[in-house]
Amino acid sequence: MSNPVAPEPLIRLRDLCKTFGAQRALDQVSLDIYPGEGVALLGAKGAGKSTLVKILSGTLAPDTGELWVEGQRQRFISPLSARRVGIVAVHQNPDDAIAPGLSVAENLLLDELGQPDADFLLNRKSLLQRAEAIAAGLGLDLPLQHPVERLGLAERQLLVLARAFALHPKLLILDEPTAALSETDAERLLGLIDSQRARGVAILYISQRLSDLQRVTNRAIVLQEGRLTSDLSTRHLPTAAYTLFGDVAEHLAVTPDRALPVPFLERFTRAGFIRNRAEGKAVQEQVVGLQVEAGGLGVQEKGGTHSDR
């Protein structure tokens, strides 16, 4: 019986380095990403996340190292060259990727409109039909003929994501896509991401939401001072570790003497153990008291002493 053949990585990075002046933003970063895989990218401010994303999406070139896509070595000179081999990045602010003054349909097809052989500008009916087909294929109900300025934030985010899907990416890089969305809109967007993964699209996901990471990704890589220091399963990523390694650390300006408590870790200290026992006993006494009161009310109601409410 032959052994199963290991899958080939979609993306292979080998010893990527990038320096800005005296600062080394990336230091010998090597990474494999496989088709249909969801990978969380974690790291505090200055860890090198943005630099890695820019190199992958063609905005920056590495100083040294290699980048391979489906077994072919690549050297991107622009985001367009990255998109041509299937790497598409969607950044946090959707307005950065929207062209005001155009319709929703035109924005949805913006990448195609930029091609030399595009005839949409001369054939408005063809443009609308193509936009309708893309929106319908993703299950989106967008007002395609309206000016893009009429869209709310959630619809603009969905529009930008839909445009990325229309490029048939092999690797989709998403930076905080649900940060400004309501729970309902975030669920719609995450559903679209799920459908893309099911089709074999790999996802590189940056987020401060642990629930998003556990929904979208299966493993997490951690950058610290430009080096890849950890590669772990997202399913087992504890909140404490995420707070330590993730973007949340950028926003918690907490000094040691005013540190926030971490209840899960406190249980394993003597003080925490004693406090948890005391709190547990108090809760038990409260529950018993409520049960006694409920029993007393039941007896009184049987005796008819309480009027109907």
CATH class of the largest domain: Alpha Beta
CATH second-level architecture of the largest domain: 3-Layer(aba) Sandwich
Q: What gross morphology would you assign?
A: globular
Estimate the mean pLDDT confidence. 78
What percentage of amino acids are in beta strands?
A: 15-25%
Sketch the major β-sheet.
6 strands, mixed
Domain count, please report it: 2
Span between termini: 75 Å
Order of helices and strands: EEEHEEHEHHHHEHEHEEHHHH
Task: Describe the model.
With 309 residues, the chain is an alpha/beta fold. The protein folds into 2 domains: 11-258, 3-Layer(aba) Sandwich (Rossmann fold); 268-303. The protein has helices spanning 49-56, 79-84, 104-108, 110-113, 124-137, 153-166, 183-198, 210-216, 239-245, 248-251, 263-266, 270-303; strands spanning 11-20, 23-33, 38-42, 64-69, 72-74, 87-90, 171-175, 202-206, 219-224, 227-233. The strands form 2 sheets. A 6-stranded mixed sheet has the order 6-7-8-3-9-10, with helices on both faces. The protein has a 4-stranded antiparallel sheet with strand order 2-1-4-5, covered by helices on one side. Strand 9 (219-224) and strand 10 form a beta hairpin. The longest helix has 34 residues, at 270-303. It starts with 10 loop residues before the first strand and ends in a 6-residue tail after the last helix. The model is unreliable at 247-276 and 297-309 (pLDDT under 50).
